[in-house]
Amino acid sequence: MSHPPLLDPNRSYTFSNYFELGFAVDDLVAEFGYSFERKFLELPQYSGSLDRLAELKQRIEEVLPFVDLENEATRREILIAPIVTDLIHYSHAKLRIEYNIKVNNQLQGNLDYYLRTTTNLIVIEAKQADINRGFIQLATEMISLFCHFPGIKNIIVKRKNSTR
């Protein structure tokens, strides 16, 4: 039995709209022809020395008592940005902040942070209280990148009936 579509084909949606709408992630990704699966991943481990980790932890812990983390901009500046700069140090990834992407009227918006190397891709979304809704937004961002950059292979989004 088919169900009515979740999305209005005559409406434009941004990534943040999906956070607000709060669809179930498996239903939403199915709307775009993808499937969702929860499982533990064995990701590659960085083999170099994490020589900045202790200093990063100290800097963040030092300022946390003085910072109100109620809004996304503050979390991005105080918590996420220092981690991202260290990720660049270790990975030599190219960074785009507020990277605009538009695949179509249902897959469009800005990625908070988009880091790319020749072999890997990292997208970071800075959400607070509702991690489930944040993941729904992240899922649509990942699907958009998969569609926008067809050569991407190292992405944890799998299209139904696809080898990609």
What does this protein structure show overall?
The protein has helices at residues 15-21, 25-31, 53-63, 72-91, 131-148, and strands at 94-104, 107-116, 121-124. It is an alpha+beta fold. It has a domain at 15-37 and 93-159. A 3-stranded antiparallel sheet has the order 1-2-3. The longest helix is centred in the middle third of the chain and has 20 residues, at 72-91.
What portion of the residues fall into strands of 2 or more residues?
Answer: 15-25%
Largest sheet: 3 strands, antiparallel
User: Average pLDDT value?
Assistant: 84
**What order do the strands of the largest sheet run in, or round the barrel if closed?**
1-2-3
**Record field, number of beta strands:** 3
Distance between the termini: 28 Å
Helix content: 25-40%
Annotation field: number of helices:
5
Order of helices and strands: HHHHEEEH
| Mass-distribution shape | globular
> Which class best fits the helix and strand makeup?
alpha+beta
The low-pLDDT segments are 157-164
Q: What is the CA-atom radius of gyration, in angstroms?
A: 17 Å
